[in-house]
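Quick review question:
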């Protein structure tokens, strides 16, 4: 710390009053990876457990075939 008249001049470390480890950067990176894995797992299990439906087209064709080819 240096005093010039009534002004006080501090260097970066003194003004900040502490060290700045990069812990936050690692926490953000790890949590981002965990969120991507969790959301991917939720999406994949939902896709695997969903009924295999093609928008109702297969049901309509099956109903027409059972009806003898007549459309209502």
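Suggested answer, residue by residue:
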């Amino acid at each position: 710390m240096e005093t010039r008249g009534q002004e006080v001049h501090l260097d970066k470390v003194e003004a900040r009053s502490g060290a700045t480890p990069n812990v936050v950067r690692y926490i953000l990176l790890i949590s981002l990876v965990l969120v991507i894995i969790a959301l991917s797992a939720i999406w994949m299990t939902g896709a695997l457990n969903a009924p295999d439906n093609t928008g109702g087209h297969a049901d309509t064709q099956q109903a027409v075939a059972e009806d003898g080819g007549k459309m209502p």
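Why it works: The longest strand covers residues 2-4. The longest helix spans residues 23-49.
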